[in-house]
Amino acid sequence: VVEAGYKYNMPDVNAAIGLGQLEEAEIFRAERQRAVEFYFTQLQSLDMIDLPISHIPPEDHAWHLFPIVLNSKAQISRNEFIDQMAAAGIGTSVHYKPLHRMTYYKERYNLKAEDYPNAERTWKGNVSLPLYPFMPEGDLVYICNTIKQLLI
What is the pLDDT of residues 29-70, one digit of tens each? Predict the structure, then answer.
């Protein structure tokens, strides 16, 4: 983000598609939850990653992302992890860039990374794993096994 901006309304065609998708929203959410529960089961024993924390029942969560954080016990950096996951054919993403790292806010308010150690730690380890409705169990197994091979 280099400048403050605005969020505009979407075009009618996008709205019509979105309305059609709403009819399937609960099915899609439940399917993402199935994948999330698989991730939790398979990855909870890895002490070098922090899994998402939810303060609501799983069925009330949208599960639009599944971000993990590589913590100080990980022997690999986030970027190395992303590169090695990509080499294994697994796409990942990085979300939640802190405001103090965005050009506009950093310059406008003279924000310094050292003033936000928790945000920095989380940012430097943050990786979102693949998550979409109807993920095949074989894909989930492959993703989790690859993560274990990279981190253990």
Answer: 999 999 999 999 999 999 999 999 999 999 999 999 999 999
Residue whose structure tokens are 């199935």: 34
What is the Cα–Cα distance from 81 to 139, expressed in whole angstroms? 18
Phi-psi region of 63 (alpha: psi -120 to 50; beta: other; left: phi over 0): left
Q: How far apart are CA 129 and CA 6, in angstroms?
A: 29
Judge whether residue 17 has pLDDT over 90.
yes
Give the span between the Cα atoms of 82 and 116, in whole angstroms.
Answer: 24
Averaged confidence pLDDT in the chain: 95
Whole-angstrom Cα distance, residue 117 to residue 139? 35
In the three-class reduction of DSSP (H, G, I as helix; E, B as strand; rest coil), residue 100 is classed as: helix
Cα–Cα distance, 121 to 116 (Å, whole number): 9
CA 62 – CA 32 distance, rounded (Å): 8
Judge if pTM exceeds 0.85.
yes
Distance, CA of 78 to CA of 124 (rounded, Å): 7
> At 141, which amino acid appears?
V
